[in-house]
Structure formats: structure tokens, C-alpha cells
Amino acid sequence: MSLPVLVAIVVLGIALSVAAVHFTGGSKEATLAGADQVLSRFAEDFPDEMAVTVCLTTDAKTAFLDIGRGRIGIVHGIGDCFLTRIVTAADVAVSEPDETNTILMRLTDFTWKGGRFRFANTADARALLNALEPRDTSSARAAA
Questions:
Q1: How would you label 38-68 residue by residue, b for 16+ Cβ within 10 Å and e otherwise?
Q2: What is the rounded CA–CA span in Å between residue 77 and residue 65?
Q3: What is the tens place of the pLDDT at every residue in 103-137?
Q4: How far is CA 89 from CA 7, 61, 128, 129, in A?
């Protein structure tokens, strides 16, 4: 078999494999339909936790749940699946960027570093910032 024919077969095989993955839903991105889906998905991983409030981002890929005692639950879409976490103020570094209703969050978790999250209104963004503020002044000084 000649080299050009072999190269053509390999290229065609790779292209067909990529197309098959794409058309069977492999490139689909998970989004959250609403608070009910967020609560249901979070309860799968943390059945003993009860959420007080749910705040979705504008792109519907991430939701933050206030679960009390200074803890925040996170449901975040990665690919066609969801990642769930529980974080406290000690686990994150949160800041407000120049954009309105947007929060930058960095987690100490090596499996997911956080990101930029935009909310539909200022109240949701402010509630998340308030929930993740350090509670103890000595821990705030130690973090700085």
C-alpha cells in the first residue's frame, strides 16, 4: 500500500471517529434547568445536606447553594456531567472583577480551580460574597 493511500485512510478514520463522538452527544455541555435540578443533582452526592437558597449563574453552568454553617455547595457543569463540591471561606479566594454581577473564585481543590461566575443580579453575587467572607478575624489575618 502506498504512503498517500495510508495517510488518507488514517485521516478519514480519525475524522469519522470525531464525527461519531460529536453526533452521539459527546460534545454536549451540561446546563442546569433550574433550582429543582440543582437540588436534585446536589442531593445525589450529598443526601444529608439541605440547601437554604440556590443562585444560578447566567450561563446556567454553575449553581451555588447556601447550606448553612458558613458552607456553600457548588454544582458545576463539566462536559456533559456535573461536579459537586462543598466549600467554606477557608477553601476559596473570592474577588470582584471589574464586570458587574461577576465573581472570581479560586479553590484550593486541585481537581477544579474555580473560575469566573456571572450572576443575573447584584443580590446573588453579593450573597455569595457575604457567605464566603471569613467569619473569624484571626483566620482572615492568617490568610492574608
A1: bbebbeeeeeebebeebbbbeebbbbbbbbe
A2: 15
A3: 888 988 888 888 899 998 888 888 888 888 765 54
A4: 54, 22, 11, 10
Are 86 and 67 contacting, i.e. CB atoms less than 8 angstroms apart?
A: yes
Which residues are CB-contacts of 83 (< 8 A; sequence separation ≥ 6)?
74, 75, 76, 77, 111, 112
Look up the pTM and report it.
0.73
| Best CA proximity match to 78, nearest among 43, 32, 20 | 32
Whole-angstrom Cα distance, residue 46 to residue 62?
Answer: 17
Listed in sequence order, the residues at least 6 apart from 138 whose beta carbon sits closer than 8 Å to its beta carbon are none
92-95 and 81-88 beta bridge pairing: unpaired
